[in-house]
Design brief:
single chain, 193 residues, mainly alpha, 0% strand
Length: 193
């Protein structure tokens, strides 16, 4: 064996050792990569499981949200019905209270109006009675006026003659003396004109 053969064998051994070392190193790296790949696959599987769990949770949340929206609509409808019921009841109570107050205020007015109506009827009746009395008095006055007119004409006719005026004067004087309480018997004799 020569030195060159030794060197060659050494080189080959060295190269083979390097190749073996490289292969071993690569195998170690491959094993590490395989372990990393396994860990990555496990991580991916875990993340896929987490993702699936998240998807299920998301679907559950979405279903819950949908149910809550339905529930919210139902609650809104119930609240609207309850509010409408309360509003209706409150309106009825207010109307009833207002009606009672109005009746309480109108009742005295109605009573006063009834009294006023009765007074007006009484006044109307009294007015009719007064009108009847006035008409009767006017008729009586008219009759008396006609009588006075006749008497005045007769007096004018009578007093138109001088002798009648003298007799009338004597008659009036006699009547005046009687009214004052002077009579024939008090002064001693008849009073002559």
């Amino acid at each position: 064996m020569t030195a060159s053969a030794l060197d060659f064998t050494t080189v080959i051994a060295f190269v083979l050792g390097a190749i073996v070392a490289t292969v071993l190193l690569m195998m170690t790296v491959l094993r590490a990569n395989a372990n990393d790949a396994r860990a990555l696959r496990e991580t991916i599987a875990a993340r896929d499981a987490d993702l699936a769990t998240e998807r299920v949770a998301t679907a559950t949340v979405q279903a819950t949200i949908a149910q809550m929206k339905l529930g919210e609509r139902d609650v809104e409808e119930r609240l609207q019905r309850v509010a409408q019921t309360y509003v209706t009841e409150a309106r009825e109570v207010l109307v009833k209270t207002a009606a009672e107050r109005l009746v309480a205020q109108v009742t005295p007015l109605n009573e006063r109006l009834d009294l006023l109506g009765k007074s007006l009827v009484d006044l109307g009746t009294a007015r009719i009675e007064d009108q009847t009395r006035v008409a009767t008095l006017l008729e009586s006055l008219s009759t008396k006026m006609a009588g006075i007119d006749d008497a005045t004409r007769r007096v004018e006719r009578v007093l138109g003659h001088s002798q009648a005026r003298g007799s009338w004067g004597e008659f009036e004087l006699k009547r005046l003396l009687e009214l004052t309480g002077m009579t024939e018997h008090r002064r001693g004799g008849p009073v002559s004109p």
